[in-house]
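A.,

Following up on our hallway conversation. Structure tokens first:
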């Protein structure tokens, strides 16, 4: 494992990232439950309340939940500086985020938009309490090279996406009437998926792919050019009305995403460690989904008028969203979690045995925290769920089966992470008792 450039002195307590990592899969199970309960209508339109609820359980409840936990972990280790406020900030962000997401999602699901007047302050406080201490760190000259470079852009994209989302929610709740509102929805999901999610996966992958899969490093040149291209094209799409410039911006955004996907797949193919590694398959599935989604976004943008009917256009939109959210973002996060959780568990236990090498030998090794059978089945479940989701979107059939499969997919991940956390806790207790005696 390549640990160069990492400062392990500033590693936060394991409870900080683990509370986010262990919450996310159950938000995924809730999304699957919505799919099961709303099977008749959920894919009828991209504005279906059930679909909006499901989308935010996945984008906020799963993706952003894990990514915030990962930021609490990776920024101190990359930069060599702790995020001010440490455990107190993480605990407040976690509680506010969970309460905010649930009130937003229940508001969508039951079209009880008065609940947004709760969701808005809760989500706003969660992201402010998270972003302020982080921004105080990121705005300074800190370590972490290419990863931190892309993470800075990702945090700005999150700020813009959340801002637009809160404005939309305020409109739903009747708290805000604003003429310019109609354009904000595509910008909201553009900054959310094309900005926050893509830029953060880029930033984190620059570290975790070479580190966990022992591949060559990303070229520093490409590692800087790609996030700059993504962020600049999103800025052009937001502030420029000229259709030609907008067209070029969409092309640059999709080409940057495709280039990143191809470069990463080629790096994974040059892994030094040739033992089969299931988690590398999650990256392959995610990156291939990103490349496909980038092509679909170009089709939507440049040939929207060619769709035979509104019905087919809606299916195409929803299908593209599923490939980008479930195929790309959820897949790479599932792959990373099954590497990061055993790694952090072992690292923290190892550090608690520094004065007692005999004890060190009794620690469970990384493969015991998440035994290979678990990711193997996770991959099969997740791939089957993605394919069935696309079949259900196009045909409108098998939606209930899809909901059941997604419940198994996310529960399996939730139980895998809970099992690893339990093994960590019982071993940490044993070590602590031993160190006291
Ligand atoms: C504070 C957090 C957020 C709030 C309050 C929020 C609010 C909203 C609202 C009100 C809509 C519906 C817009 C409409 O019908 O006009 C929406 C749609 C959407 N949001 Fe968010 N959002 C948030 C965060 C996010 C994030 C972080 C992402 C992505 C990473 C995201 C992705 C989407 C997508 C993809 C849609 C369109 C869904 C569809 O067409 O079915 N949202 N959001």
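Then the amino acids I'd put at each of the 437 positions:
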């Amino acid at each position: 494992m390549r640990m160069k450039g990492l400062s392990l002195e500033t590693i936060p307590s394991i409870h900080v990232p683990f509370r986010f990592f262990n919450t996310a899969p159950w938000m995924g199970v809730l999304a699957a439950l919505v799919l099961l309960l709303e099977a008749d209508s959920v894919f009828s339109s991209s504005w279906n309340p059930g679909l909006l609820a499901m989308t935010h359980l996945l984008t906020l409840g799963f993706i952003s939940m894990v990514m915030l936990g990962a930021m609490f972990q990776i920024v101190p280790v990359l930069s060599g500086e702790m995020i001010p406020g440490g455990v107190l900030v993480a605990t407040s962000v976690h509680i506010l985020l969970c309460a905010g997401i649930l009130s937003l999602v229940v508001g969508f699901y039951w079209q009880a938009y008065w609940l947004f007047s709760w969701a808005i302050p809760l989500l706003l406080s969660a992201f402010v309490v998270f972003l302020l201490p982080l921004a105080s760190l990121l705005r300074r000259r800190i370590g972490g090279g290419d990863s931190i470079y892309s993470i800075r852009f990702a945090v700005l994209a999150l700020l813009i996406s959340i801002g637009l989302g809160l404005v939309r929610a305020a409109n739903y709740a009747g708290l805000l009437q604003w003429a310019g509102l109609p354009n904000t929805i595509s910008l909201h999901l553009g900054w959310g998926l094309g900005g926050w999610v893509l830029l953060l996966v880029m930033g984190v992958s620059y570290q975790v792919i070479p580190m966990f899969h022992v591949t060559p490093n990303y070229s520093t040149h490409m590692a800087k050019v790609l996030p700059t291209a993504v962020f600049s094209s999103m800025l052009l799409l937001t502030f420029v009305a000229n259709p030609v410039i907008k067209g070029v911006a969409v092309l640059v955004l999709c080409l940057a995403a495709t280039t990143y996907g191809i470069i990463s797949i080629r790096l994974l193919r040059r892994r030094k460690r040739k033992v089969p590694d299931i988690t590398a398959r999650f990256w392959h599935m995610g990156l291939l989904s990103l490349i496909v989604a980038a092509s679909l976004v170009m089709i939507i943008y440049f040939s929207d008028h060619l769709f035979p009917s509104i019905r087919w256009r809606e299916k195409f939109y929803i299908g593209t969203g599923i490939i980008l959210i479930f195929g790309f973002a959820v897949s790479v996060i599932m792959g990373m979690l099954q590497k990061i959780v055993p790694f952090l568990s072992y690292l923290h236990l190892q550090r608690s045995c520094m004065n007692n090498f005999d004890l060190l030998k009794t620690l469970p090794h990384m493969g015991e925290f998440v035994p290979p059978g678990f990711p193997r089945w996770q991959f099969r479940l997740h791939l089957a769920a993605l394919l069935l989701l696309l079949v259900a979107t196009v045909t409108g059939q098998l939606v209930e089966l899809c909901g059941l499969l997604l419940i198994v997919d996310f529960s399996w991940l939730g139980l895998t992470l809970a099992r690893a956390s339990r093994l960590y806790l019982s071993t940490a207790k044993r070590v602590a008792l031993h160190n006291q005696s």
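The pocket of protoporphyrin IX containing FE is lined by residues 46-47, 51-52, 55-56, 59-60, 64, 104, 123, 161-162, 165-166, 168-169, 172, 185, 188-189, 192-193, 196-197, 321 (CB under 6 Å). Curious whether your intuition agrees with the design.

B.
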